Amino acid sequence: MHIEIEKKYTFRLDDYEKIIANCKRIWVEELKDYYLDTPDYRLFKAMYYLRMRNGIYELKITRINYETNLVISDEIIWDEEIDSVLKKEFNISIDDTIWAIFIDTSREKFEYKMWWETINIDIDSFQYWKRYEIEVVSETKTEAEVNDLIEDFRKKLWLESTFDAETSWKATVCARNQNIEVYEILKWQ
Asked: Mind listing the pLDDT tens digit for each residue in 26-78?
């Protein structure tokens, strides 16, 4: 398990051009995400996001700092550990879940070295929208330190995009178009 701390932003072409000019492009990948849940959507309601990404299960246990718009996620990628968490928290296993929404994403991944830290930038184009996220994977930094690091990076590159709760969450945008029950849950998170 690792901790990912990120901020999500609406896509702007001028920001994209600044990222391309100043950051190292790592790769481009196609992501096929099938989000899974129980029939009553217990996982989504608790901000547990179980997905099968390109054939591999992942579980993100998420919380949001609404003052800074930081998204903090514990990410688990081992099936046995995922099942253990699901059993403990919800008394279910992966096999007890059903398909809820699908997200088809083309992702460009960039990185930027700032001081002793690596900042990751994901530019996501998915079936209904585009957005980008700036993230730091850290076991030692506080939320405030990561927020300052992200804001310093944005100032250094003169990035101007803003956070938009409605369009920054891929799952919310896709649910609005695919599964209104899931959308009603996600739009309030």
From this structure: 999 999 999 999 999 999 999 999 999 999 999 999 999 989 999 999 999 99
Which residue do the tokens 């927020």 mark?
147
pTM: 0.89
CB-facing half-sphere around the CA of 79: CA atoms within 13 A: 7
Residue 95 CB partners (closer than 8 Å, separation 6+): none
CA atoms within 13 A on the CB side of 109: 12
- Residues 6 or more apart whose Cβ sits within 8 Å of residue 93: 83, 86, 87
Spell out where 11-97 has E strands: 24-37, 48-53, 56-65, 70-76
Nearest to 131 by CA among 153, 103, 152, 99: 103
User: How many Å from the N-terminal Cα to the C-terminal Cα in the chain?
Assistant: 23
Q: Which two tokens stand for residue 4?
A: 């990912």
Specify the CATH architecture of the domain 2-186.
Beta Barrel (2.40)
Smallest CA-to-CA distance from 105 within 6, 38, 173, 164 is with 173
